[in-house]
Design brief:
Radius of gyration: 32 Å
Helix content: 55-70%
Number of strands: 0
Shape: flat
Length: about 180
Amino acid sequence: MEEWIRDPSQRRVKAAELRADRVERRQQIRDDLAERGRKREMARDIGLAINELVPPSMGPALADQFREDALGDVVRHIREHRLQELPVEKVPEILARRLDLYGITPVKEAGGKAPAPRVVQAEKTGERLKAQADRRRAASATAPASTGHVPGQTKPPKGSTLEETFEWLDQRTRAG
């Protein structure tokens, strides 16, 4: 270490090595980010392809289950075959068994090559997304905290008869 500090040529060599390492790390980070972006785009395209296979007549719960199962099948196929890329055109081929299980027949284009994209009705999609958000919101809602003393009597009057107690309860439930 002392030798490095004393010799200016060693410092220049070491500085050049450090710069080269830094440039290499930056390039690796750029490549990793580009790869992640490419994979994100591929995942989005696969998700859209799966959505296009869902018939409009299928109920929302069954459609959600199909999407989950189909996505699981595609992920399993990618992992089993150690694929880096999956062309979207192969999605119906990979999901052929799943489509049969759900009774879905993909619509073929005139050339008979790939499923024709269907326009998902925005109205139904919006309703489904709103319902999902409402369910999530309701599931995560917490009970309101106590605001202190509850106005009014919370127990029937002491010494009241059974008939008086029922009358008291009836009044309380009607009041709100």
